[in-house]
# Entry
Amino acid sequence: MSSSVGEEPPVETLEPAESEGPRIAVDPMMAEGPAAGPAGTSFSEISEMPPLKEVYIAPPPPPPPVEAPMAPPVAPTVYRAAKKAPEKPKVQPREVAGKAIKEIKTVPPQLMAYAIGGALALILIIGIGVTLYVHSQNDDDSGSTQTAAPVVQTHDSPVTQSAPPQQAAPAPVATQPAETQPAETAETAPAEATRGRRGGRHKAAAPVVTTGDLSVDSTPQGAQVTVDGQTDASWVTPFAMTNLQPGQHSVSVSKAGYTAESRSVNIASGAKANSIFHLAQPMATLIVKSNPAGANIYVDGREVNARTPAQVSVNKGSHVVLVRMSGYLDETMNAQFALGQIFNFSPTLRPLGNADSIKTVGKMGKLFGKGDKNAAIVSIHTSPKGAQIAINQHMLDKNSPVDVMVDPGNYEIDITMSGYAPIHRVINADRGNKTVVDEVLTPQ
# Structure
């Protein structure tokens, strides 16, 4: 308890007579006063306990204060409003773009090209570096997955191979010393591969070369095929060849009666190349010249879009070549052409007579022989009579029979009559002479 009684009242002790048994110890607090004193009130008769007095016990003295080091005085914080930066005047985007364009225009084009080229070269170098790095990482990953070669135990140096977890270790295999050579080779290969990976050296795997195929056809078919200078009697179009190395190959096709053709064909790896040849039949060459030059050329009645001198290609066979020029007689040639033949036709064109001076001679003129002594007489007769006459494409007013007076020279006479085949003749009228043209018309 925190308090105790200040004065202890006398405690009465009941002590029995010596003759009565042992004494009983009584708590002094519960005992009554001494026996010699006056008889007090017994414990059972006490109606109220005496008041207890509280005893004050002073608290222990506080420990001596420990002097703390003096902290440096803290400077008071003074709040100051931040100064606002002066606002810059707003620049219109159009002005900025205009200035940028002007600055770009001032840059020399050569410098701009160098800058762009440098940027592209830098991007290319970075791309190559990243590609090489990724390729090396892929090689490392693929190399790490390779399994080690099995270890073979020999009599000279036994080796025990540890089995993977949860698997029974394989029994060691004993081989003869002569058979250890393949095992050593198998062991050194992974070691060299591991050494190469650690040292950063990678050997690129040899690329797998896949051959290609070639298909050759021609028009017409049945042509002989030659590939890279090699041929065979069985290599006839349509022709197919396999197992050709990738790359460029020389292919030529030839056939009798046609011009040979050659070309270079690219064979891709694992692909098939198709090549079709259109063979041209060789033709004859006709070289046409005329005096005077500039005449039109006709082959088999069809005009060639060329004037003399000219070179014309014609097929083999018989062809009629005509050279025509206004004011001159037509010159023709009928020849047999062979393949590859060169034929020359160089006619000298004969000038036509003057058709404007043609005069018809009547009966009286014939009777008295009137006429120009320097002129020539042309007498035209037909059977049947009454045919129309044209001299140098100048139509006469009188039908056959008719006599005309012309200047000396060359003349083309065309005789036509309804129901009969036309007739074309070329005559040379001499001065002072008479030329007779007598024709029998053939009914159509």
